[in-house]
TrEMBL record:
Protein name: Probable deoxycytidylate deaminase
GO cellular component: cytoplasm
InterPro entries, per database record: APOBEC/CMP_deaminase_Zn-bd, CMP_dCMP_dom, Cytidine_deaminase-like, dCMP_deaminase-rel, Deoxycytidylate_deaminase_dom
Lineage of the species this protein comes from: Eukaryota, Metazoa, Ecdysozoa, Arthropoda, Hexapoda
Protein role: Supplies the nucleotide substrate for thymidylate synthetase.
CMP/dCMP-type deaminase domain segment(s): 106-237
Top-level taxonomic group: Eukaryota
Provenance organism: Melipona quadrifasciata
């Protein structure tokens, strides 16, 4: 990324010679000519410093500017007579505000991640399942996870599935993630919605999914594919026209760092400090 100091004409004054100075070796500035906006150095992204000679004010203005592709020049001016150091920051902020980040989540990864995040709320010691329901406008209308019904304390009701006493088995009490998501929806109808779920629905959840009007189910795990309840669920989905497909996330793990929002801010400050330069180092020959 090239960093330039450019001697430009002020638009209100007569045209002056435009000179670009490579800042790669700040101690020994090498002078090269830059005759047009289309020069590769000028059109490349990065910090570009501008020295505007304004005779009428008997003062020079040292300024940060950029040549973003397809946009007008961006200037941040400061009177060099009143500043000891230069902290060019405008282009950095402009780039972070308008430049599109490439490593963002696509819609499917985002919605499936919401399902997995919801699963983290489950108290089940063996299997934590999460579901996320999305409408045709890609809006989340509900999330859910497997847990005890409202009013049934998860500290009192059993979580075991192999208890000798059948009434102490969780299967009689737990609401599955899919059912909770459907019941907790924030809209009147789920017609034509898509459900993202971490585990393929059982036969009981399949009934409710079909009745709710959900048109498609995307899942990550089908580890109970050989069990009768899963086969029954697929049979009902096929008959009702509810499509289902195994989804493979583009990344195996997604880390949530609650300190990232602050570290990003600190990184921006560090970038500014990194390119801070003392004015006395400039020596234009």
């Amino acid at each position: 990324m090239s960093r330039l100091v450019t001697l430009l004409d002020d638009q209100l004054l007569t045209t002056q010679t435009r000179i670009s100075i490579e800042l790669e070796r700040i101690e020994n500035l090498a002078v090269t000519s830059a005759t047009s906006r289309e020069d590769s150095d000028l059109t490349s992204s990065g910090y570009t410093l501008v020295l505007l000679i304004i005779p009428r004010f008997n003062s020079d203005f040292l300024s940060l500017h950029s040549f973003p592709r397809g946009k007008d020049n961006v200037y941040q001016k400061g009177n060099v007579c009143q500043k000891e150091t230069l902290r060019p920051f405008s282009y950095a902020e402009e780039d972070k505000q308008t430049g599109k980040r490439e490593n963002y989540l696509d819609w499917d990864n985002y919605f499936m991640a919401m399902a997995f995040l919801s699963a983290k709320r489950s108290k089940d010691p063996v299997t934590q399942v999460g579901a996320c329901i999305v409408n045709e406008e890609k809006q989340i209308v509900s999330v859910g996870y497997n847990g005890m019904p409202t009013g049934c304390s998860d500290d009192i009701f059993p979580w075991s599935k192999d208890s000798v006493d059948p009434l102490e088995r969780k299967t009689f009490y737990v609401c599955h993630a899919e059912v909770n998501a459907i019941l907790n929806r924030n809209c009147y109808s789920l017609k034509d919605c898509i459900m993202y779920v971490s585990l393929f629905p059982c036969n009981e959840c399949a009934k409710v999914i079909i009745q709710s009007g959900i048109k498609s189910v995307k899942y990550v795990s089908d580890k109970y594919a050989e069990k009768e309840k899963t086969q029954a669920a697929k049979r009902m989905f096929d008959a009702a026209g509810v499509t289902y497909s195994k989804y493979s996330p583009t990344c195996e793990k997604l880390m949530i760092d609650f300190t990232e929002i602050n570290s990003a801010e600190n990184k921006e400050i560090s970038d500014e400090d990194e390119i801070e330069m003392k004015l006395e180092k400039f020596s234009i020959v």
